[in-house]
Specification:
alpha+beta; three-stranded antiparallel β-sheet; 3 strands; 47% helix
């Protein structure tokens, strides 16, 4: 995963699920409460997440758990 962090890109939901370990409903509930990076519209019927925001969120959670 270290190579994927070298550039900023759009992550789709399956990759966000794999990266965070959260399922779809949990991700959307966290977004709704402001505790997870917001998805952005990338097309008429598609959303994606900024990879850097997702990696930063995961890093914050891991650091807080120590």
């Amino acid at each position: 995963m270290s190579n994927t962090k070298n550039f900023r890109r759009i992550m789709r939901l399956p990759e966000v699920i794999e990266t965070t370990g959260y399922r779809r409903a949990s991700i959307y509930n966290l977004m709704k409460s402001g505790k997870f990076p917001r998805a952005r519209s990338i097309g008429a019927r598609a959303v994606g997440w900024d990879s850097q925001e997702i990696y930063d969120w995961v890093t914050e959670r891991l650091d807080a758990a120590q």
